[in-house]
Specification:
single chain, 286 residues, mainly alpha, Ferritin, 67% helix
């Protein structure tokens, strides 16, 4: 296990040659704005790449997703939690006890990929931007491991799909060195779930659109919910209570209280007085 840790630490030097290649001017980049999208509905990292820098920006987004995921999961679950994952019940103690350390190694390697890709983009004059605030939903160690398996296998297929667009042999070589490490992560996680670590002689490649669809649940959705609650609660309650009571209280009671009582006592009282006067006058005349 110490040897595994040593090899993971030395991984930071694997991509060191990429920075030298870029610094020497082997790569050509047209403009820092090349990563922008013509379609507002699709994040610019998932636009069909036109240059090597576009591919690197795309790869950086995937690596940031994986690095953020491992960081969140390893903050949530300690070694005992991970070893108690139900998916590991059928494995020997030696394999189970190695799981937390292997996941730590994978997390370090994903963080190294992020660092190197950001550095290369900066050397190219392309601003890598800030990492999105990814959203993860796992409640148990097994759910965390299952999501890790999905992300790693998606990453393998994503690199296979984007690699043909890379023009520089040096950048292609560096990208493939990341791709093979992602495949090792995926193979290990497949094994934990009872699947073959290398199921096929050839891995399928995914287009950027397919990758976007696969990772959509982890992308932040912050714009939609904020605008709705502001407009609805303010306008409706104000107009209804003001107009309805005004008509009921002002017009209806006026007719009932003013006209009805005024006419009834006048006519009834007059009729009564006339009758009594006639009855009183008749006996005096006779």
């Amino acid at each position: 296990m110490a040897e595994v840790r040593r090899r993971a630490t030395s991984r930071r030097s694997v991509l060191a040659g990429t920075g030298a290649v870029v610094g020497a001017g082997i790569l050509g980049v047209s403009s820092p704005a090349l990563a922008q999208s013509d379609d507002d509905d699709v994040p610019h990292q998932f636009n069909q790449p036109n240059t090597d820098a576009d591919v690197l920006q795309y790869a950086l987004t995937l690596e940031r997703l994986e690095a953020s995921f491992y960081e969140a999961g390893l903050d949530e679950f300690d070694a005992d939690d991970l070893e108690s994952a139900s998916i590991l019940d059928d494995f020997d103690d030696e394999i189970v006890e190695a799981v937390p350390e292997y996941l730590e190694i994978a997390a370090q390697q994903e963080a190294t990929h992020v660092d190197q890709l950001e550095r290369v983009l900066n050397v190219l004059g392309v601003d890598p931007g800030d990492a999105p605030a990814f959203e993860f939903d796992f409640e148990t160690p097994t759910e965390f491991l299952e999501t890790a398996r999905v992300l790693e296998n998606t990453g393998v297929a994503a690199y296979a799909g984007a690699a043909p667009a890379i023009e520089s042999p040096d950048i292609l070589s560096a990208a493939l060195s990341i791709h093979s490490v992602e495949a090792r992560h995926a193979g290990y996680l497949n094994l934990l779930f009872g699947e073959a670590p290398y199921p096929d002689a050839f891995d399928a490649a995914l287009s950027m659109g397919e990758v976007l669809e696969a990772i959509q649940p982890f992308l932040p959705s912050e714009e939609t919910p904020e605008e709705t609650p502001e407009e609805t609660p303010e306008e409706t309650p104000e107009e209804t209570p003001e107009e309805t009571p005004t008509e009921t209280e002002t017009e209806m009671p006026t007719e009932t209280e003013t006209e009805m009582p005024t006419e009834t006592p006048e006519e009834t009282a007059t009729g009564t007085d006339t009758g009594f006067d006639t009855a009183t006058t008749t006996p005096d005349g006779s």
